[in-house]
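Rotation project, supervised by the postdoc (A.L.). Task for the rotation student: set up a whole-complex structure prediction and record inputs and outputs verbatim in this book. Inputs entered:
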Amino acid sequence: MSVLARIAGTGERFVHGYASRMAAVVTALVLAFLWLPIGVLVFMSFADGGVLSFPPDQLTLRWYRVFLSNGAARGAIVTTLTISIPATILTVTLSTMIAYAVDRYGFVGRSWLQLLATLPIIVPLVVTGIAMVLFFNGTLGLPNYVSVVVAHVIRTIPFATLVILPTFLSFDRSLEEASKDLGADELATFRQVTLPNVFPGVVAGGLLAFTLSFNEFVYTYFVKGSSDPTLPVYIWNQIRYNVTPEVNVISVVFLLVAVSMVLVAVWLTRVDLLARR
Amino acid sequence: MTDASSADDDTGGADSTAGAQPDTPENVAADGGSTTAAGPAPGSAGRLAPVTGFFRDHPRLRTLAVAGPPYGILVLFFAVPLLAMLLISFQTGQIGGAWTLSNYTGFLGSETYLTVVWRTFLISAQVTGIVAAVGYALAYSIVRFSRRTTLLLLCVILPFWTSYIIRMYAWINILQSGGVLDSALAAVGLPTIGLLYTDTAVLIGFTYVWLPLAVLPFYASLTNLDPDLIEASKDLGAGPVRTFLSVTLPMTINGVVTGIVLVFIPTFGSFITPRLLGGTSNVMIGMVIENQFKSAFNWPFGAAIGMVITVVVVALLLLAARLGGGLFGTGGETA
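Outputs recorded:
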């Protein structure tokens, strides 16, 4: 027993003495683990040889030119945008309505609405994906394009709501009271007082929704039927059947879109807001 | 759904114009504001004035007009499909076939499939364990020992927002035989290993994609922990390890449970990572579903497997709720 106590005591003293250095090492190692693969991807997009050769003999912009002259890849980007842009607009509208209703109105089923707006994150993507293909394509017979847009809306609503709702909850309600006291009705108040105040959160929610939709794969993969591939589906086919170094270039495109969108979103809200939610 | 939401905008727009008197300066400002705030043209106001008044007199219907469209869309395009999947899983061969239990008996009676379920469970448990340990250590290091908390957290979250497939592809580059890892090993004179298409590759891939997601609830619960409690524990003579085990960890258990749920559930249903990084011996349940929809075309059977996953997920959520994960509620701690 006393031996155990002594070992425990030594452990305590060790942790006490080295804790902050251990923390620094853990942080550095994990950040390296998270960012090295991305660095490799960017580096390999400039590699001259095939995919299988590392380190590359020489650096080149060749694959960027190949990508730019590849009609299928550009077509995939256009297809993705024709889905992501309407899906984002719908999602932002619906998420703002959810945030407004949850924040302002007490109604029966309010907690159910919140639950429904959270569940798509929790139910495994493959389960929702096949449920959608069964119902949209099998039962309702929706056109493929409509199915994909609706699927993207369902996929992005939870994330947009998680960003937009806090900006409503933290908004100073007395400004609205003042507006109403001065004679404005609910909608005029919403336009002139509420919306300008929550606008950064709404835009941030929209940017995250767009990023998520631009990257969306699982729902799209199941629901899209025979329609044109989106960029993630195109990459999936490339990786599974014929890898070319061009995939590295497309990866860089994805990275740039995601990083710039998220940075603007974070700048508009606050990063700890994302963490708290 | 477009109709529903725009119709709602119209009534709302009319509300504003009808509510403000035409001769007040506020109204002029309100109309000016409407052009920037994506409102409908004020011209439609007169026509809709009766509707507006009706909504003002019936606040419940006004609530319905705001909450109804998103509610309806989530029910119709998310909840109903899941229920439809339950029904279809009891049909033979195709949608609308005769009612049967054969999809379930066929799945649960097959040793091959049950082995796949068990392997999926084991892989998910391993991934969850690794991610929880590493993620918690990282969150703890950031919260307790770092000054640049915001910047570090941003560096952790950012990779999560890039494409899942791209992140897997990055690891193909690294792990394939002759890839980055092998070249690095060879450069320092070690034997190459070619990890791609092994269990290890699958574990690395999953850890990589879910780590940022799990750090968020860990971070949130650690930030909300009152530092006075830790001071009190130390004043009472406990060392850092004992303080961690008897104060910090129990006080942040909600965040831990949330993180575990957020990692285990998507891993259990995943098919992308095992398909791209795993070999033919690393089949997971998600891949079996994908097969039913992409090559075997037995949709009801696929729906039945989907229900099996759902049952596992629901069981886990109930367990987590007992252990105290704050997954729902006002946004909760869900990523």
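Student's summary: The mean pLDDT of chain A is 84.
Supervisor addendum: Chain A touches chain B through 120 residues (CB under 8 Å).
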